[in-house]
Amino acid sequence: MGVEIEISVETFPIRGSFVIARGAKTEARVVTVRLRVGANEGRGECVPYARYGESVESVTAAIESVRSFVEGGADRDDLRRLLPPGAARNAIDCAMWDLAAKSSGIPAFRTAGIESLKTLTTAYTLSVGTPEEMFAAATEAAHRPLLKIKLAGRGDRQRLNAVRAGAPKARLVVDANEAWREDDLKANMEACAEAGVTLIEQPLPAGADAALARIDRIVPTCADESAHDRAGLAELRDRYDAVNIKLDKTGGLTEALAVAREARELGFKIMAGCMVGSSLAMAPAILIGQMADFVDLDGPLLLARDRDPGLTYEGSEIHPPDGGLWG
Predict the structure, then answer these.
(1) For residues 60 and 5, what is the distance between their CA atoms, to the nearest angstrom?
(2) Which of 23, 91, 139, 159 minimizes the number of CB atoms within 10 Å of its CB?
């Protein structure tokens, strides 16, 4: 019996807006792949990201370009040869994992070599804004144990001070989204140290981050835009202390698991990260979260409406996915 593939575009409104150094968005547009064999269906979701030259249209076209191969029986290894790392491959790869679990009755985490799934504590993201806006957001989220602070360059010290004042007990990680420059790197890192930040994500632009190897990193740094799949991972070791593994960057769970293993061998800490998507996008990433030092899988917490059924969040605690959702 052959595989049937269905591609759909779905929109989930964001609660308020999500603002980073590169701009703001008020909705998450995702591409969902459904693979069917008989009565079994596997699903995968991806979030096209303009920073990587992706759009809903380009991702949909990429998936269509391999339709005949997928319907002809291509497996996950074939898929890695057919499509480059990115959102399109992620949606199909995760759908293949889900379909295999539904068809075999063996949960995806066991196929991935994980004994059992534990509850995870996710970071909760605060959008970049004025110090006053970020103080208010931090005060509202002060009960959460881990906050991820979006920064934007100029004025970041004031933003950090405002967040720390609003959430004095929370652990903080920050994400500059490539907004810092070499001439302000030291001062911004010192501001992070003073605010008690435990990790700085992608402070400098990808491809222009060599300065990270020449300074005393008084706060550990994490590669995001600089690290996609295993290619070039070893070369980042002198600049970064951690790597953010996102399935939309690696091109699916298959490569993400391989990246996590290699990252560990190279001595990196691991962040399990995400784009802003629904619970269907987060569910396979929970497997990466099982081996991560930092978990940032708060996408559904930022939405005004999630899938039903979705993941269960209790505060910042994420429970493992039910098989009806994924895996």
Answers:
(1) 12
(2) 23
